[in-house]
Amino acid sequence: MNIVSGIDMVYIEEFGEQLKLSEDNFVKRCFTTKEQNIKETKTLAGIFAVKESVIKAYSLAPGSWLNIEVDNRNSGKPYVTIKNIDEKVLSQDVSISHSKDYVIASYTALIE
Question: Rounded to two decimals, what is the model's pTM?
């Protein structure tokens, strides 16, 4: 067993500018079909930060965003589903926090 973790922070204003500049290209490259239905910039920035923290935790190839889907449990707590990883995830925890200007996300998992 091993513990993996990753963390990422996103500047919301810059992220919003990237969304506007790239039109749908950035969204289609980074977000699953389900995630693309979310329109709030702050929420998408949080999802992107989670994806980046997962990529860091597993040392995945850059651009692996579509292999990671972020969703919420009924309680509102976020969780991720990851495709195409070799490790067996025994337990995971995701945390997202927003301020006025930034969003930060962390991912920790116990893997086998």
Answer: 0.94
**pLDDT single digits (tens) 10-55:** 999 999 999 999 877 899 999 999 999 999 999 999 999 999 999 9
Reference 48, options 4, 79, 8; nearest CA is 8
Domain count, the chain: 1
Strand partners, 73: none
CA 92 to CA 33: how far, in whole Å?
A: 23
Q: Provide CB contacts within 8 A for 5, sequence distance 6+.
A: 53, 57, 106, 107, 108, 109
Cα–chain-centroid distance for residue 50? 3
CATH code (residue 18): 3.90.470.20
Tokens of 27: 């969204």
Domain extent, residue 12, equals 2-111
105 has pLDDT over 80 = yes
* Strand order across the 2-11 sheet: 2-11, 102-111, 89-98
